[in-house]
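Notebook entry, cofactor series.
This is the third protein in the set we're modelling with a bound small molecule. For this one the ligand is flavin mononucleotide. I'm keeping the input format identical across the series so the outputs can be compared line by line later. Sequence and SMILES below, as received.
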Amino acid sequence: MLAHPYGRNGITGHVFREVHASCFGKLDRYCLPFIAPAHLGKPFTEKTLKALRKLDDLLVIPQLLTKNADGFVWPAGLLAELGYSEVNLNVGCPSGTVVAKGKEAGLLRDAEELERFLQDICTRSPLPVSVKTRLGLTDVSEYERLLDIFCRCPLKELIVHPRVRTELYKGTPHFACYGETLEEMPFPVAYSGDIFSPADLGALVQGYPATTHVLLGCGILANPVLGRMLKGGPAATADEIRKFHERPLEGYVEKMGGNTLFRIKV
Ligand SMILES: Cc1cc2nc3c(=O)[nH]c(=O)nc-3n(C[C@H](O)[C@H](O)[C@H](O)COP(=O)(O)O)c2cc1C
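Returned structure with ligand:
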């Protein structure tokens, strides 16, 4: 089970992760929202370093946003120096400004270019590369070609959010494309999208018994105990929820020196 805490929006960070893990148990991995890559030959900015420097006692996977191979390999080296063991590339973000610049979901626009880019970064990255993807920009028919490309690249893992960019987060995910990915992909696959309850996971696993991992996004923010419940555990007690509210406050006071107004959003 993986979690994608939306740190970029100020909701989470290492305080959230540590408190969450100690209240409800560690998840297998924690995927960081994308960071802006450092410029070639330069260190990360202080702001990015703040988000990255604290390596908690959890398996945390940072994510990069770029369409430039050198611009990926250089920060991947910096992440290796910081002690990370894997780097994720996001080719699935639907954000309009990002797509217009050809980054993230925009990378899905030119399949040949995407393959060149992926092969290059997989060869030169000092860390194993995993990818987070959508099915294409406007139509699921785009995915067949993309899946072929992903299968040819030595990825550590492919995380699939089975919607196209224009669907944003709406409508029913295209589960069949996820099923196809499970069948074809020679590397591990994780599913992402609309898992809010054990019933949702049950339906996914019933349809696709080869499922091994899901990435929890909105579901685990709405219900912080979702990971435990998906493993057959109980819902949160009132006392657990109270602690989960109090402990981030202690962490933010320590980290920010007192003024924590607006930080507690869970
Ligand atoms: C506010 C917001 C921010 C997100 N930021 C990222 C991101 O930085 N990197 C990424 O790979 N996915 C990002 N996602 C996508 C989620 O990882 C996930 O694929 C998507 O929300 C569907 O899963 P869910 O229904 O479990 O949330 C974001 C989603 C939302 C709603």
